[in-house]
Design goal:
The chain is an alpha/beta fold. It has one domain: Rossmann fold. The protein is built from 4 helices and 7 strands. A 7-stranded mixed β-sheet has the order 3-2-1-4-5-7-6, sandwiched between helices. Strand 4, helix 3 and strand 5 form a beta-alpha-beta unit. Bound molecules: S-adenosylmethionine. S-adenosylmethionine (SAM) binds next to helix 1. This is SAM-dependent methyltransferase. One of its GO terms (biological process) is methylation. GO terms for molecular function: methyltransferase activity.
């Protein structure tokens, strides 16, 4: 998933659904020293664990729904929003709120990248983003789709 993102020169990165931090770690390894990462995760135990793993000043673990991202994002919009949210399990209204806020908090030059198991998401994202590309990776278990939007 991360190989589809450009990290050089990027200043604001948002991750949706931090989970156990494996994607978070990959982002931190790749991002510039002066970049800032905001991670949204609704599970408190996961958030506590993420805060222990990633105490860096430029990494903020936000224990709230991605649907509330507008409350936390700085004035500057995001260059990259990377998501592993399980959209097929999220109710339609909440899902649409996250799609809309993701679109409106992304810079015009920014990218939203989702890893998922359902190709159907591509058609949902097409209502919010001008350009959608898809890829398939065997490097995830189970193999997954990567949807790249801007
Ligand atoms: C597939 S897991 C993430 C896997 C994670 N990227 C990793 O590498 O471990 C999805 C995560 O999204 C979180 N989540 C679900 N709905 C959410 C929401 N509305 N806002 C933020 N996080 C959410 C879940 O608690 C779960 O940890």
């Amino acid at each position: 998933m991360l190989s589809f993102a450009q990290f050089k020169g990027v200043k604001v990165i948002v991750e949706l659904g931090g989970g156990d931090g494996s994607i978070t770690r990959g982002i931190i390894e790749r991002m510039d020293a002066d970049a800032k990462l905001l991670v949204f995760e609704i599970s408190e135990p996961f958030c506590n664990n993420l805060r222990k793993q990633f105490p860096q000043k430029n990494v903020e673990i936000i224990c709230d729904s991605a649907g509330n991202m507008d409350k936390y994002l700085p004035e500057e919009k995001a260059d990259l929003i990377l998501s592993s949210l399980p959209f097929s399990l999220i109710p339609k209204d909440s899902r649409m709120e996250i799609y809309e806020k993701t679109r409106s908090h992304l810079k015009p030059t920014g990218f939203f990248i989702q890893i998922c198991y359902s190709y159907i998401l591509k058609f949902q994202f097409a209502q919010y983003f001008k350009s959608i590309k898809t890829a398939f990776t065997l490097r995830n278990f189970p193999p997954a789709f990567i949807i790249i939007c801007n």
